[in-house]
Amino acid sequence: MMRMIGRHSAAIFVAAALSAGSAAAANYGPGVTDTEIKLGSTNPFSGPASAYGTIAKAASAYFDKVNAEQGGVNGRKIDFIMRDDGYSPPKTVEQARKLVEQDQVLAMFQNLGTPTNTAIVKYLNAKKVPHLFVATGASKWDQPDKYPWTTGWQPSYQTEAKVYAKYILENLPNAKIGILYQNDDYGKDYLEGFHEGLGDKAKDLIVAEVSYEVTDPTVDSQIISLKDSGADVFFNVTTPKFAAQAIRKAYDIGWHPTQFLNNVSTSKAAVIDPAGVEKAKGIISSYYLKDPTDPQWNDDPAVQAYREFMAQYYPDGDPADLFNIYGYAVAQLMVEVIRKCGDDLTRENLMKQALSVDHFEIATLLPGISVTTGPDDHAALEQLQLQQFDGKEWVLFGDIVGTE
Amino acid sequence: MELVLQQVLSGLATGGIYASVALAVVMIYQAIEHFNFAQGEMAMFSTYVAWSLIQIGMPYWVAFGLTLVISFIGGVLIERIVLRPLHRAPILSQIIAFIALFVIFNSVAGWIFTYTIKPFPSPFPEEPIFGTFISTHQVGVIGVTLVMLGILFVFFNFSRIGLAMRAAAQNPESSRLVGIPVGWMTALGWGLASAIGAVAGMMVAPIVFLEPNMMVGILLYGFAGALLGGVTSPTGAVVGGFLVGVIENLVGTFVPFIGTELKLTVALVIIVGVLTIKPSGLFGRPVVTRV
């Protein structure tokens, strides 16, 4: 019986392969037909990092919009298959294999998380599956030699840390810097970029580096140590909950350094409001997207279009959540890359098109920021603008900084 | 020297959190002689109940009281519905049920209330009455923990029902013979542990912010505190909680080899150390099983 089933399915497989072969005149890779393109993604819809899950849902809603209003891209609808990995790397591996081998997706798009993508990056590159615009700020995705099939999306943590380092060298040359960072890849990436940005000065300027673990209930003890170090500049490399705790504790114990906050935690709703707006006054950070809660974009057509999109295609999502405008923006880049492919929808061509984006503008990015990639440049966004919290809202200042 | 003082005070403040959670741990241990791994998540869920009640405009103390009642009933129901059928099952089955409860509460909270952190109001004044080293709320937490300890002490040592509960946990057979409804005593224990957890949650949330994972790390420190002080002793649990808070801060700040990177390890070392060297903890009575 087993043998029969085996032979039977083998026959079907051969037949399928033959028919795929005959249709190959139109040059399709796996997961592509005349009417459909399959993309896959792993995301945390459950577990500790599930707040990020909404990024893929917003992206998916944008594909729904394109499918409904434009009939898809070049006549093919995007079938975006999202799988839950609970932010657990072993599950990511399982789900990624399922997407590639069972669902036969053309490419991976917006897989979320640094540890999770780390777990699958070798597999996808070995299989030559495009691993596009990953949702993580780690700098390691931009390594064309090591990972030719992987591209990043957001400005990397190192890029961002260098922006702050440059600002400090120019404006606070005698700073005594204290750093609080999460003790993992993400925190250390910032630390490395910051040291690199300060260059020879790092030794003299940094007076204290203190870490915390995600399991720590509070960072109170760390903030007390930083204050004691005599630091007058505070670089806060923390995720939202700890960022809010650190801002509040520093204020409460009477420590008022110039604060730099990593843009992982600039959300007004999730960080600044819980910490207390008066306690966050003066904090410097940076961003690259238009924040939908920022009143200065209230009349901006792009943000208005985004709000309409949310109401119509993702009514369960919170339009004020920065992660949604993030997903909305990156999905537009994906649609552009597929559009550029035309009818040549092989994995090779998709990768080629993803790596030849030239100044592509997305209306919800800050004015002056655009996407450019190249064979040696696997980082989609590498520009930021500094912003300062004035006690009510973030105010952008200075020029767009970074490379293209 | 000032740094030592600040770290000790800050340790006592965090220790107050651990102590209140440790109390809930001891409470459930009194009732069922097991740890409940879902304790923290139940406390977190209760805190969301309180938050929702405050959101719809209820004054803090009304919401506080109502949350205790809801949590108590919830605890009793969980025992009746989930654990009652398992009470003769092997311990492993019960632990799996605890883990299931953990995941259910965590996911349901995330699903209903989202994972965005929420500020939770404190019943204590915002002004730092006790200087900048320790906030008024943190002093309040310590006070509330001590009051709860006092209530539990009176309950277990002087009230009929408290004594009956201890008897039911330690010797179910004999208790049944003298007419104590053993099954209901266990349910009562769950209800009380759940209500104490709710108080702990409402005290913790203003410090760490309310979110579905708020208790995960804290419960571990709570376990360490309860074990260090002795799982059979409410006083021990509170002392243990404070000790863990202070030790954690001092070791993290002044032992460069450990530093902030191994703070959690300190809690785990305490757990393993106590279990190997003195399983009954500092204040607990040794558990003797008659064969």
Pattern of helices and strands of chain A? HEHEHEHEEHEHHEHEHEHEHHHEE
Largest sheet of chain B: none
Low-confidence stretches of chain A: 1-7, 15-24
CATH superfamily of the largest domain in chain A: Response regulator
Helix content of chain B: over 70%
Order of helices and strands of chain B: HHHHHHHHHHH
* Bulk shape of chain A: globular
The number of helical runs of chain B is 11
Strand content of chain A: 15-25%
Shape of chain B: globular
Termini gap of chain B: 54 Å
Mean model confidence by pLDDT of chain A: 90
How far the N terminus sits from the C terminus of chain A, by CA atoms, comes to 60 Å
Lateral strand order in the biggest sheet of chain A? 2-1-3-4-5
> What is the CATH top level name of the largest domain in chain A?
Alpha Beta
Radius of gyration of chain B, CA atoms, in whole angstroms? 19 Å
Integer count of domains of chain A: 2
pLDDT averaged residue by residue of chain B: 88
Topology (SSEs and partners):
The complex is a heterodimer of chains A (404) and B (291).
Chain A: H1 2-23, E1 36-43, H2 53-70, E2 77-84, H3 89-102, E3 107-109, H4 114-127, E4 131-134, E5 150-152, H5 157-171, E6 177-182, H6 185-198, H7 202-205, E7 206-212, H8 220-228, E8 233-237, H9 240-252, E9 258-261, H10 268-275, E10 284-287, H11 301-313, H12 322-341, H13 347-354, E11 383-389, E12 394-402
Parallel strand pairs in A: 1-2, 1-3, 3-4, 4-5, 6-7, 6-8, 8-9
Antiparallel strand pairs in A: 10-11, 11-12
Helix pairs in contact in A: 2-12, 3-4, 5-6, 8-9, 9-10, 12-13
Chain B: H1 2-32, H2 39-55, H3 60-83, H4 91-113, H5 136-158, H6 160-170, H7 172-177, H8 182-208, H9 214-229, H10 234-254, H11 263-277
Q: What can you tell me about this protein's structure?
A:
- The complex is a heterodimer of chains A (404) and B (291).
- By secondary structure, chain A is of the alpha/beta class.
- Chain A has two domains: 208 residues, Rossmann fold (3-Layer(aba) Sandwich), CATH 3.40.50.2300; 131 residues, Rossmann fold (3-Layer(aba) Sandwich).
- Helices cover 43% and strands 17% of the residues of chain A.
- Chain A has 13 helices and twelve strands.
- In chain A, the strands form three sheets. A five-stranded parallel β-sheet of chain A has the order 2-1-3-4-5, sandwiched between helices.
- In chain A, α9 runs parallel beside α10.
- With 291 residues, chain B is mainly alpha-helical.
- In chain B, 49% of the residues are buried.
- Chain B is 74% helix and 0% strand.
- Chain B has one domain: Orthogonal Bundle (ABC transporter involved in vitamin B12 uptake, BtuC), CATH 1.10.3470.
- Chain B is built from eleven helices and no strands.
- Chains A and B meet through β7, α8, α9 and α10 of A and α1, α8, α9 and α10 of B.
